Task: structure prediction
Amino acid sequence: MQGKNLNVSAIPALGDNYIWLLTAGGKNCAVVDPGDADPVLEVLKRQGLKLRYILLTHHHPDHIAGVPALLEQYSATVFGPADERIPFVHQVCKEGDQIQLTELNATFNILEIPAHTRSHIAFYGENALFSGDTLFSLGCGRLFEGTAADMQTAMDKLAALPAATNNYCAHEYTQSNCAFALEVEPDNMALQARAREVDLSRLAGKITLPTSLGDELATNPFLRTRENSIVKAARKLDPEASAGISVMAVIREWKDRF
Result:
């Protein structure tokens, strides 16, 4: 998939993770959330690439465990959130910051989206959003360190980005997320169409990412907590649920049990 200036491709890892590889036509590259160094090193060697930048969205091991081994072989700059659990960040990133990947002629804006973890960030630029474990295709991350209010704030922040933005999340969860979304909103025709596309893609062994924010806004229940159909579904479990945060809380707990 190609953004404005970047080529973005997936390096599968750890069963259902994707480490995103960013290139711009030359030998320099960046990776996002390398939870395992081995597949990254294999791709870099095979393609003759030089790792210059590492972007980290949050502290979970399946997103950062490969960083030390990569730094043993490459003098890459590591960008990530302020979190003592990520000791190897060179440039701490916070809301409103803008980072320059000079060797790739790329710029990213930093969005703080603490919900899945307290220090989670996203990188947005070049028509791409690297959302880690916050905004999945047809889903959102578990609330390990944040609240439903935090997740609603994060979803609203991401929903405000251009609809054509490509969302590169970190896991291949689309098919299972789709099954849950259909439980919540079975009459959503756009969701029904996506379900068919996803099933065909997985049957063919293809990845389902990236997805556009426009498609997510039309089909992802966690971006649609103010839609009447989602509110109605949430009220079957909690008659007091109201649009926004309380609906988010209900459907996130519902998904946890699904």
Remarks:
- The mean pLDDT is 96.
- The longest strand covers residues 7-13.
- The CA atoms of residues 194 and 219 lie 8 Å apart.
- Residues 7-257 form a domain with the Metallo-beta-lactamase; Chain A fold (CATH 3.60.15.10).
